DNA sequence: CACACATCATAAGTTTTGATGATGAGTCTT
DNA sequence: AAGACTCATCATCAAAACTTATGATGTGTG
């Protein structure tokens, strides 16, 4: 009684679009094909699975319970294809250079390009690949040998890295005309109930900020949530509140639309420079890593640039 | 510079198979197509993504770092298709009946069929769908309206159910010639270091069993792990050890190759009969539910068949 | 060294699948 | 009853997927 069925991806994609949009016509538009084409795909699929996926009620399609169960599985597959496409464009953007460096977004706009430029000045014929990404992606890339050197935040997800840890002290960014600019150092007490622009709740610094406020018995008034330091700054510029930022994002202070103050108690960002344990560093890689660590020593919190083992969590 | 790329699923499937098997020839066999066909798909994919996925070294394919990064994304998608196929066959096995009942495996061999037979005796022209599945799948099916009545174990994963809780007391099954058959009730002290056949460590009863042994300062000697009560029984029959089982599995006691004893402290299985909050029970559904709850009252631990709210975890 | 047997790539030809546009039937609105 | 929707069906055609046949290259063996 077992019979061959050949679920084709196109059919699942069609099915997915129909459930999502509610009608065949709209689904066809979403996929950029004609309505009869989609009708066919659906008919094929229903013939092959041998149960109804939709009740035809008064000319409309109403998903059966079976369809809803199936949809959950199909969802994973169809959405997954988007992820693959994204991965492909990420990989396409990587040029083949002699030295590959990836760093987390917040450090990628001002600091890293400047350092790389300085490094490349003495080496005119060397090609360097530099890319900005999320911390987890950077770790994946360095682990797989796609990039030689990565700069990202903790936590580390694998154990495949040589790790150089350093810590960056965060500061509070405020609009120029903010009343609290009169203080030299800001504390939770001073900032009690002040509108705050914060990172998503899963980010380290957010949790530490919240803890600092709780400790001081102050209220953290989280007005806007965002997920890139760079975005927070935009809101600060617009005067919507204050934000806790890393000094790299604050480099643009010169634009004169916001300023910054230290925060007490200090909140540090746990950052790391990683290289792959699996393959040894190239000569240029070594040279750049030395420059990077040396330079970070000037910015980072004292005594925090050192060799260290990866600590997960 | 952005150019159109049309990642076809078949190409990803090909890529996935090649990475998995290591050679094109083997991958072709796995997918059931010819080697040149696969070679073509790979060539297409490499042309479209515009970076090498494999180095051709001495006639063999060696994945590039890019390929390994891509593989992780592709993996999700391709494996997902298998899940969809599995879901489809699950759904195909469901017949269209007026009354749909699903129950967890352990209760599905003896008890439920017998009860359903009794119920159907008075109603000769009624079609009933009955299916045995894992607890989580049963919940999904009842939640989506695919089945009217489900019998499964806690924990409940949604809040979409009307819940009737009951508790089943487990017993220790032993081979007939086991020395411990001389006891009327078995305790952790008596069973200290006795070879045990146990459920996987994620199952409730396993954790409680372990706790009971720890409390008594006895050693739980887990000799075999399995994941279906029915399987445990097979090992007991073979004399490999004793096992903690629900009374439904023990119904076959008549076969004379094992026996059972109560265990102290009592270990109960948290079970529930669920129906969907979303749609009201049909008349037959109501009737069967009444019969089921009434009958469970005779088997279950006293005072434990009652209406209750779902409690998660 | 020559032979058998792997590997992957290419070419040409066939079958299957996907999509189109025209058409029709049903439902709801106005 | 017209018009704007829905979805299904048909004939048709192009693109994709697969086939067989063949060649180039590499490896291991007597």
Would you mind describing this structure in some detail?
The structure is a homodimer of 313-residue chains. The first copy, chain A, has 313 residues and is α/β, with parallel strands linked by helices. Chain A has three domains: 9-89, Arc Repressor Mutant, subunit A; 94-167 and 269-308, D-Maltodextrin-Binding Protein, domain 2 (3-Layer(aba) Sandwich), CATH 3.40.190.10; 171-266, D-Maltodextrin-Binding Protein, domain 2. Helices cover 40% and strands 23% of the residues of chain A. Chain A contains nine helices and 13 strands. Chain A has helices spanning 9-21, 24-31, 35-49, 65-93, 111-121, 135-143, 204-216, 229-237, 283-299, and strands at 54-57, 60-63, 99-104, 128-133, 149-153, 161-169, 171-175, 195-199, 221-226, 242-245, 258-262, 268-276, 306-308. In chain A, the strands form three sheets. A six-stranded mixed β-sheet of chain A has the order 4-3-5-12-6-13, sandwiched between helices. Chain A has a five-stranded mixed β-sheet with strand order 9-8-10-7-11, sandwiched between helices. In chain A, a hairpin with a 2-residue loop joins strand 1 (54-57) and strand 2. In chain A, helix 1 packs across helix 2 (24-31) and helix 2 (24-31) packs across helix 3 (35-49). The longest helix of chain A has 29 residues, at 65-93. The radius of gyration of chain A is 26 Å and the shape is globular. Chain A starts with 8 loop residues before the first helix and ends in a 5-residue tail after the last strand. The interface between A and B is medium-sized, with 33 and 33 residues. The first copy, chain A, binds a DNA duplex (30 and 30 nucleotides) through residues 8, 10, 23-25, 33-44, 56, 58-61.
């Amino acid at each position: 009684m077992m019979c061959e069925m050949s679920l084709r991806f196109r059919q699942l994609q069609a099915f997915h679009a129909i459930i999502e949009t509610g009608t065949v016509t709209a689904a066809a538009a979403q996929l950029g094909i004609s309505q009869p084409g989609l009708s066919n795909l659906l008919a094929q699929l229903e013939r092959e699975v041998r149960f109804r996926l939709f009740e035809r009620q008064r000319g409309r399609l109403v998903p059966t319970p079976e369809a809803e169960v199936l949809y959950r599985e199909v969802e994973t597959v169809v959405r997954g294809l988007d992820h693959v496409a994204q991965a492909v464009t990420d990989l396409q953007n990587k040029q083949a250079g002699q030295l590959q460096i990836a760093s987390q977004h917040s450090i990628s706009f001002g600091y890293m390009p400047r350092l790389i430029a300085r490094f490349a000045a003495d080496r005119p014929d060397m090609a360097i690949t530099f890319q900005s990404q999320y911390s987890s992606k950077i770790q994946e890339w360095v682990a797989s040998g796609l990039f030689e050197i990565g700069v990202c935040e903790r936590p580390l997800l694998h154990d495949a890295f040589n790790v150089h840890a350093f810590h960056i002290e965060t500061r509070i960014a405020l609009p120029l005309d903010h009343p609290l600019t009169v203080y030299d150092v800001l504390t939770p007490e001073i900032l009690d109930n002040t509108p705050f622009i914060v990172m998503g709740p899963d980010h380290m610094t957010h949790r530490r900020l919240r803890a600092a406020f709780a400790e001081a018995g102050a209220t953290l008034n989280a007005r806007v949530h965002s997920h890139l330091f760079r975005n927070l700054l935009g809101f600060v510029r617009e005067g919507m509140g204050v934000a806790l930022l890393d000094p790299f994002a604050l480099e643009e202070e010169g634009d004169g639309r916001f300023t910054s103050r230290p925060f007490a108690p200090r909140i540090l960002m746990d950052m790391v420079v990683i290289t792959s344990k699996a393959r040894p560093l190239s000569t240029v890689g070594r040279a750049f890593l030395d420059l990077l660590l040396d330079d970070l020593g000037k910015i980072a919190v004292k005594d925090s640039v050192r060799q260290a083992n990866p600590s997960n969590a």
